[in-house]
Amino acid sequence: MIDRFLDRVARIIELALALAFILAVLLNFSNVLGRYLFGLSLLGSDEVQIFIMVGMTFLGAAVVTRRNMHLRMDVLVRFLPKPLQLALRVIEQLLLITLAGFVLTQSYDYAQRMKMIGRTSDMAGVPMWIPHGTVALGFGLVLIVALWRLLGIVQRKPEPAAREVNL
User: Around Cβ 2, how many Cβ atoms within 10 Å?
Assistant: First the structure.
């Protein structure tokens, strides 16, 4: 049940990021047309595009983690004995949990401060807690996935293979 829920969340994030990417492309296209054809520029569109890329990076990391598609150097690991492979998987998840927990706490604290002082972006007026909050949200989701995967490893469930994306 939890696996299906996490898969559903990953799919929702993936679709939202695809729509955000389309929005970024349309903003860029509109800005190019405006600049070169009419001598006008959409103020703040560059900022919005950067914020979309930040969201794509950190929320996308959660999707990649859920699908077990992150880059890893495991050529030599495959030749190790199974108990050592298991130990390395546990260490990998513990390191990921530590990193994700640290970044989550730091980015959450920073996003809270941005919200508290009411900081907005210079041109588009986007509340800065939103892009900083996507970092916290992304790493929070990575943390949840890593904890769930560690629990599966401890319970000796087979590690999920990297999943193909069906579009």
Answer: 10
Q: pTM for this one?
A: 0.85
> Would the CA dihedral through 94, 17, 163, 148 be positive or negative?
positive
> Span 6-33, mean pLDDT?
94
How many CA within 13 A on the CB side of residue 22?
A: 6
Confidence at 94, pLDDT banded by 50, 70, 90: very high
Q: Which of 31, 33, 27 is nearest to 48 (CA)?
A: 27
Q: Where are the domains of the chain?
A: 2-71+79-154
131 backbone φψ class: left, alpha, beta (φ>0; ψ -120 to 50): alpha
Amino acid identity, residue 167?
Answer: L
Across all residues in the chain, what is the average pLDDT? 91
